[in-house]
Amino acid sequence: MAAMKNCHNDYKMKFSVDEEFPDLSLHNNHMAKVLTKDIYSKLRGKSTPSGFTVDDVIQTGVDNPGHPFIMTVGCVAGDEESYEIFKELLDPIISDRHGGYKPTDKHKTDLNFENLKGGDDLDPNYVLSSRVRTGRSIKGFTLPPHNSRGERRGIEKLSIEALSTLDGEFKGKYYPLNGMTDAEQEQLIADHFLFDKPVSPLLTCAGMARDWPDGRGIWHNDNKTFLVWVNEEDHLRVISMQKGGNMKEVFRRFCVGLQKIEEVFKKHNHGFMWNEHLGYILTCPSNLGTGLRGGVHVKLPKLSTHAKFEEILTRLRLQKRGTGGVDTASVGGVFDISNADRLGSSEVDQVQLVVDGVKLMVEMEKKLEKGESIDGMIPAQK
Amino acid sequence: MANSFTRMITGRNTAVMMAMGAGTLASAFLLNDSTAAAERRRFYPPSADYPDLRKHNNCMAAAMTPTIYARLRDKATPNNWTVDQCIQTGVDNPGHPFIKTVGMVAGDEESYEVFAELFDPVIKDRHNGYDPRTMKHPTDLDSSKVTSGMFDERYVLSSRVRTGRSIRGLSLPPACTRSERREVERVVVTALSGLKGELAGRYYSLGEMTEREQQQLIDEHFLFDKPVSPLLTAAGMARDWPDARGIWHNNEKNFLIWINEEDHTRVISMEKGGNMKRVFERFCRGLKKVEHLIQERGWEFMWNERMGYILTCPSNLGTGLRAGVHIRLPLLSKDPRFKKILENLRLQKRGTGGVDTAATGDTFDISNLDRLGKSEVELVQLVIDGVNYLIECEKRLERGQDIKIPSPIAQFKR
């Protein structure tokens, strides 16, 4: 597909590469590690059909130098074509972020919940809640960093239509951010459902908060176990969650709900963005593949202070977060434990890792409570 | 000094001068029809993209109509800046019922022409009915005309005059590319290195200053930070921070220039005490010298006779001038007539931290409200006369005498 030119970018081309190249000397993110003047020179003359350029891709990474200890991605896609047109920059970033994933690799999608073994018996004395989330982008629309108000409203309209066809356990209601009553807002906050205007500069510098709260909203089923965010960091964020440790049930509802929604979008010739190399296409390269984060809130006061805690997590291919989500601290020994991988393994694979890994860690915790050693239980690298 | 920039300026100057002089709209490019981006626009008519401004209280929201938006949405300045980009900050920041912000910015000099249909009513709203289509703005930087500019230092703690200047031919902070921003820095820093005598000084690049230099600049109240106000960040002015941003000040530490913050340059003259006349005199002298130095290299400031000096925010058009003092008014500030007195004198109060800060104790920042339609000399004289009046009121209250609310000052001559 030929990349068409964009007038604004033509104007910028009058300036030399040296004059335009960003100063990344203080930066610690994937984009800064990969971008060279050579790559920049090759890509700066291009734009996607909707007009997204390499400068648009990297702006968030230029504006957010990052932290010495935390490596952020530092770039976003503006549309599906970004991943193709700027592959020279994005492929190495994807490889860095996703464990050496190669441009020739194929990603497996498996949303057949019956393939998950176990997962219905995590000890509720330790596992307080279970949750699976992913994102989906709607084909034919550009992504949150780039879309216009008209497109965003179009996405919202289609989403409302798709969601309103759901029935049975999925029957629910849409709450537009710009129209909910005070009572509705309070309830959504109490349920931990409400999302706010992004304040993280990682998101705002990428332009995702423009026109807030226009076209944004939350849908959830009456049972409050299946939830969809519309037009936050991605077109859709789909969440299945419930109290306790029945991850199998959470994952079943997740898969079934997703497939039902996808059918409606497909009927309107606006299926989900997906390809066999990158799986599901999302705004941030870190969420490519499954876009899936499956996790639990689990009490591990003893294990979390054990010297080998980090190593155990790494070997189990899991990551820890505080109970407030990304970039928060744990409270009272309760951790959010979820899969670290997104690309290169399937949804079933990733949730299986969480189920097996959390089961093992709970057993370790019980052992430590009894004053016993867990040295014999340390797993091999998965 | 022929380089790609000077060549472009010649071209742009011609276009701009033709447009301004002939009184017609500047060359507005219709966004290229052959791109898929244009197709997307056709698929989404202007009505699909019209912003939801129902909860908004800013000048842009008050002036915007579906008809205006439909006429402007598909236009672009020669730098390809669009109306959506101008208004983004106003869409993202609905404002406060008590404080009416402007809600839009210019990306370049041509924005004010190409999107005149929206900028003109906003300018009128913000600048007391000033009509840039029919009226002329007076520029006067002859500081010798100012009288009684020495305040009673028992009340006035410090005096300050600031303005902004934009370099013609380079896009403004919301729109500029990294190389344009770096060129602004180069042009201005080169010019400033030509200043001598009382004005001689040095430049501190934000990205390269040492910790010690940084602390020194903070202590002197000179250092500016990466903008956090969403009014500025939503307009894209903080991109690539701190690339090409910096502070220049003279050795005497009373003449200071900010580079690439909210405008290409902010020029500040300040000193402790009440000698506003000297502050303004240095201000004018410094500005004229800097202008002369950039002209020697083929550059000039953005200016025209209808809008005066062109700056990023429409609120700063005209003189871009804020002349003010930090003043102690313990009795007057508690008098219920204080607000009305300020209003009639065309003055505003701010906290000693600047805009949107609270006053500490009885000390206020008092400065002119107006920017456009009156000259620099007129505005500074207005501040001088007004502050002297406030001091007089304070003294009268000290003596137990009554004070009077002055008659309102006349608006600009039409």
UniProtKB/TrEMBL annotation, chain A:
Gene Ontology CC entries for this record: extracellular space
Phosphagen kinase C-terminal domain boundaries: 126-368
Enzyme Commission identifier(s): 2.7.3.2
Segments forming domain Phosphagen kinase N-terminal: 12-99
Keyword annotations of the record: ATP-binding, Kinase, Nucleotide-binding, Transferase
Family indicated by similarity: Belongs to the ATP:guanido phosphotransferase family.
Primary enzyme class: transferase
Biological source species: Xiphophorus maculatus
Pfam families hit by this protein: ATP-gua_Ptrans, ATP-gua_PtransN
InterPro entries reported for this sequence: ATP-guanido_PTrfase, ATP-guanido_PTrfase_AS, ATP-guanido_PTrfase_cat, ATP-guanido_PTrfase_N, ATP-guanido_PTrfase_N_sf, Gln_synth/guanido_kin_cat_dom
Protein name: creatine kinase
PROSITE patterns the UniProt entry points to: PHOSPHAGEN_KINASE, PHOSPHAGEN_KINASE_C, PHOSPHAGEN_KINASE_N
GO biological process, one term: phosphocreatine biosynthetic process
One example GO MF annotation: creatine kinase activity
Secretion signal, residue range per the UniProt entry: none
Binding residue positions for ATP: 129-133, 192, 237, 293-297, 321-326
UniProtKB/TrEMBL annotation, chain B:
Record-level GO BP terms: phosphocreatine biosynthetic process
InterPro entries the record matches: ATP-guanido_PTrfase, ATP-guanido_PTrfase_AS, ATP-guanido_PTrfase_cat, ATP-guanido_PTrfase_N, ATP-guanido_PTrfase_N_sf, Gln_synth/guanido_kin_cat_dom
Keyword Mitochondrion carried by entry: yes
EC assignment: 2.7.3.2
Any one GO molecular-function label of the UniProt entry: creatine kinase activity
Keyword vocabulary terms for this entry: ATP-binding, Kinase, Membrane, Mitochondrion, Mitochondrion inner membrane, Nucleotide-binding, Transferase, Transit peptide
Bilayer topology term: Peripheral membrane protein
Pfam short name (any one): ATP-gua_PtransN
Intracellular or extracellular location(s): Mitochondrion inner membrane
Binding site for ATP: 158-162, 221, 266, 322-326, 350-355
Keyword Disulfide bond: no
Domain called Phosphagen kinase C-terminal: residue spans: 155-397
Highest taxon of the lineage: Eukaryota
A GO CC term attached to the entry: mitochondrial inner membrane
Domain spans labelled Phosphagen kinase N-terminal: 40-128
Family statement: Belongs to the ATP:guanido phosphotransferase family.
Function: Reversibly catalyzes the transfer of phosphate between ATP and various phosphogens (e.g. creatine phosphate). Creatine kinase isoenzymes play a central role in energy transduction in tissues with large, fluctuating energy demands, such as skeletal muscle, heart, brain and spermatozoa.
Descriptive protein name: Creatine kinase S-type, mitochondrial
Species name: Xiphophorus maculatus
